[in-house]
Amino acid sequence: MNMLEIKQLDVWFGHGHNRVDAVKGAEFSVPEGESFGLVGESGSGKSTILRAITGLAPEWSGGITVNGERLGKQRRKSFYKTVQMVFQDPYASLHPRHSVDQVLGETLALHGFRDIDARVVKLLDDVGLGQKFRFRYPHQLSGGQRQRVAIARALAPEPKLLLLDEPTSALDVSVQAEILNLLVDLRKDRGLTYLMVSHDLSVVGHMCDRLAAMRHGEIVEIMDVAALRGMQAQHAYSQELLQASV
Ligand SMILES: Nc1ncnc2c1ncn2[C@@H]1O[C@H](COP(=O)(O)OP(=O)(O)OP(=O)(O)O)[C@@H](O)[C@H]1O
């Protein structure tokens, strides 16, 4: 079964002369359990696809189907039980005056869980932090530790699909691999499906099964990561991306 189906997706901002067509006719499907990458230069529309899925892009047309349910303009609460997002910047995504315990506890309460204490402890273990981090505040955490908290928060509702928007690009190089490996393990253990935006082909090569190369709002090629590794892109633009990343 496909966890995500995107059909003829157009997304735009503004109107008339100010209209920006950020995504044009995008189509791809992500089967359950797959990790799918979106790559392309800055401004090519990668993040806008994630925003359209989460309901953060107001103007779009086409089809977005998640876990068999075709989405309308509004996202219901149940949507966020299935789909969660991890953002690029863990400094911006955590409230500075909320402790880790509050961040996770409130998310769990919002989604109707009752055994909150036990779940907070389990989530902290699952992301490799452990209980000693439970009552810390964001300023007491490193960038990598913050991103682990953000990942724990995303896992709290037990989602099926994680949208990852450059989840390591704001981190020190030394911790990027740790976070990527954590994400690889979590997907394996939980059977998660990933849709991951990155401008870094080596990250996508490590994390993804397939990828779409985007340029000027359009998907120019969809390929297996094996083709990426073998430098076998068909489209000239994908070849350029590959060459630039060597
Ligand atoms: N809120 C907005 N209002 C107007 N234009 C926007 C808005 N958000 C994005 N855009 C435009 O849409 C296009 C696609 O942007 P998007 O952020 O999806 O690209 P991207 O491939 O994710 O790039 P990056 O890697 O830099 O994040 C760009 O031209 C951008 O300027």
Note the main attributes of this structure.
246 residues; alpha/beta; Rossmann fold; six-stranded mixed sheet; four-stranded antiparallel sheet; globular; binds adenosine-5'-triphosphate
Structural description of this entry:
37% of the residues lie in helices and 27% in strands. It is of the alpha/beta class and 246 residues long. It has one domain (2-245): Rossmann fold. A six-stranded mixed sheet has the order 6-7-8-3-9-10, with helices on both faces. The chain has a four-stranded antiparallel sheet with strand order 2-1-4-5, covered by helices on one side. Strand 7, helix 7 (173-190) and strand 8 form a beta-alpha-beta unit. The two termini are 35 Å apart. The relative contact order is 0.18. Residues 13-14, 20, 22, 40, 42-48, 199 line the site of adenosine-5'-triphosphate (ATP). It comes from Celeribacter neptunius. Residues 6-241 form the ABC transporter domain.
